[in-house]
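BUG-483 | component: ligand-complex export | severity: low

The export step for nicotinamide-adenine-dinucleotide jobs runs without errors, but we want the raw record kept on the ticket for reference. Input record follows.
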Amino acid sequence: MSATASVVNLDSRRDDPALVSLRTTFQRMHVASRAEPPPSIGERKARLDALDRVIRAHRTAIADACHADFGSRSRHETLMADVFPTLASLQHTRKHLRAWSRPRKVAVHWAFQPGSARIVPQPLGVIGIIAPWNYPVQLALSPLVAALAAGNRAILKPSELTPRTSELLAAMMTQAFDPAIVAVAQGGVEVAEAFSRLPFDHILFTGSTRVGALVMKAAAEHLTPVTLELGGKSPAIVHESYPLELAAERIMAGKLLNAGQTCIAPDYVLVPRGKAEAFAQACAVQVAKGRPTLADNPDYTAVVNDRQYQRLQQGLDDARNKGARLIEINPANEVFPAEHHKLPPTLVLGATDDMVLMQEEIFGPVLPILEHGGTSEAIAYVNARPRPLALYYFDRDSSRIAEVTERTTSGGVTINDTILHIAQENLPFGGVGPAGMGAYHGQRGFDTLSHCKGVFQQSRINGAFLMNPPYGPRLEKLINLLT
Ligand code: NAD
């Protein structure tokens, strides 16, 4: 079968121009990825440099586009949490690319010596990257860094819910790359569905657990491997020996970044029994310190759209109706017009399992504060629920820190702070269970989007002939030795 023929099976049920263009782009990339030799390290570095240049040149435009898409998105948060992590990942990747790309020599069993074995990373081909709206730049471009470093071509599918940023990403990619190397497919669910049905060599999806399952199902048709970066309810646990004010400061910093619309935001907090009230007070103090006003404060991001805003309001109503006490943090006593989608940080005391807030990922500036009766009880609470994407533990006792990290299973962990494990390029970033599968960042991203091929090389002088038929006493002796 020719390379062209291998892609004629693409879904051609719909004639929408966006879908036709997507199929054509994919087909061109697929054919080229099979016909052309893998790009050299120099070519890959040049691509990473082009990405770096185009991001730096569009810093302001990126902050403007995100601001417009969110209604109000802190420019500092865009630069700190969208632009900086992508540039840091580029820098780290460029620095280590040669070492990661080298064949990795591995040991050989004595029976096959002096043959040699090595793992040879090679490009997979064409990577599909599906990104969500909450960090629309970082979550589209960080996977792209890994894809390009590994020598692949890629098509990005940014979120339709941040259309200006998606449009900007498309313009940036057109400026920086040959469309046979990087392309952007814009559009809504229909385009996204068609995208996930394309026979990519790998799909890296970031988004909700529900859609992640749909993507995996669609990808299964072609046995396309997937990396799923999903969401979930990430707990923060505070030990009673840890200063409550410090925990409140770090937890609210993680919670209010992007107004809680962060996959690894602390979803709820478990504080020692009897301390919920004091912790709530400490949270209010911390918020007022950093953001004495909220409604028009450019440092406080809005909820992205009316649907998400209503979802959060309904969650709060549901909790209130079922007996929770809501503490709205509103230091300047402001009015928050619903159409601005700015939700004041809200603490929830007395939350129970039957409340929507405790069943679904919150993804907004709402923090249920629960109480625990010790580390073991907190661990048991977490372990009785779906495995979270992140877990935060506040304590200075190393044996208890070890106990919590050992006995809980989450995608990643930050101790005595929140969010920051995602910023460590040397740590794999990914979920477990319903929070996702596979990981990227740093070398893990490079390996995920490479085929790590095993190569055995026979030496000129070798003992392989000993295993040839006719089998006799000589082979039997050898087998006895081996077994
Ligand atoms: P989403 O799942 O609704 O959408 C993500 C992407 O999937 C979008 O580009 C969308 O167009 C596309 N999509 C929608 N329907 C599709 C379908 N049927 N087939 C294929 N693709 C489809 O997620 P969202 O609302 O944009 O993002 C929020 C979620 O993402 C939260 O659950 C959050 O925790 C999670 N998230 C995870 C990470 C992580 O790194 N683990 C990072 C950010 C966000």
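Assignee comment: Attached the raw record above. The chain has two domains: 3-230+434-455, 235-426.
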